[in-house]
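Sequence in, structure out. Go.
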Amino acid sequence: MSDDPIDIEALRAEIARAARVENPAERALEIVAVIESVAAPLGIHPVVVGGMAVYFWTASEKFLTHDIDVVMETPDVLTGRLRELGFVRTVNGRHWTLPDTDIYLEAPSSHLDANAAVMEIELTSGRTARVLSRVDILLDRLDEFQATGHEIPAQQAIFMIAGLSEEQSQALNRRAPEREVTKILQAVRKIAADLAAGGEPPDSGELHEIARAALKPEYPSE
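Output:
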């Protein structure tokens, strides 16, 4: 843990500046980068996950969200520093708002998967922020689609599959078995290929059926 003093007033000004950044992804990462300044001395490094990470990797307005999900521990000392930065904690304990802005911060969990890869993104301010890798976010979307059959994670997975590099595709193939999403990955790849060939997207009922069919071989009965 660092003993370097933290200039809260300067960081409050940085938060205010970051909240005015026009690009949603850049704004979110700048906010998280300032939070990193008060969290890092505690050995905590917030990582952007969820919908904002999807938007960061796709830049698709279809997936735009103003919520900022981060994986990080939230001990009382960090909660106090967030309060000093101007954040207001909501009653459920893992959500914070920034008054007079549309910033909504959530820390849904404290730890990433053991094999998760994190990318450090250099920002125009000179700060850096951590974002869950494109492959890991895609694995999360596949997992959610398989578990729920919902349209939004399915659409996100289909969109992200289409933009993978060969190296990312190979990493996805290696990682899918450990997350038990191999079958749903195959199904999503087929949907993406069909759409690229001019096919129609599956409707909600079809997506639920695809998810149910994929779930069975991933978790066979004893």
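Check: The longest strand covers residues 104-109. The first helix runs from residue 8 to 19.
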